[in-house]
Amino acid sequence: LYDDFNGERHFFDLVGSDAMKNAKADVFLFYSQTFAENDVAIKAVDAIIDQFFEPGGWSQCFDNIYAIEANIPQELDLYIPSAQEELYNWVNGPNRQFEAAFRIIQSGEWGEYDGFYLMEGDSVPIKAHWLDVVL
After folding, report:
1. Which residue, 11, 3, 14, is CA-closest to 129?
2. Would you say residue 36 has pLDDT above 60?
3. What is the pLDDT of residues 50-88, one digit of tens each?
4. Quick one: 30 exposed, middle or buried, by C-beta within 10 A (0-12, 13-18, 19+)?
5. 59 phi and psi, to 5 degrees?
């Protein structure tokens, strides 16, 4: 992962996860729109997938990694907190993305899952071994 503000590179193993290897877990990189329409999204996902397979990377903690998309049209992919009083669908994008993620994972196309944990893109783990506790 990259910290654009500080220009630092953070590897997943710095957060800690090796105790959970006995659990079965996959990573879904879930984009609200369509990858084909956004070169920045494609490059970001490619970089994360490359890092997944690096020594000491995410593959030591997870079985698979998938990049999937919600296909929400750009004009409906809204998240405008400042307009929550006057725009009823100010949070339409995240809501539709959650629904699409749930439906896709529930479909069984990517495997059978007992549950899932949604970590939004702006979430940053701050405690070592946080994922072990979740799993």
Report:
1. 14
2. yes
3. 999 988 878 888 889 999 999 999 999 999 999 999 999
4. buried
5. -65, -15
Instruction: Give 72: exposed, middle or buried? Use CB within 10 Å, 0-12, 13-18, 19+.
Output: buried
The pTM of the full predicted model, rounded to 2 decimals, is: 0.73
- Range 114-117, long-range pairs (CB < 8 A, 24+ positions): 116/28
**Cα(31)–Cα(97) distance, integer angstroms:** 8
Cβ neighbours of 32 (radius 10 Å): 22
Give the total residue count for the chain: 135
Q: Which of 15-19, 31-35, 127-131 has the highest mean pLDDT?
A: 31-35
- Quote the DSSP letter at residue 17: -
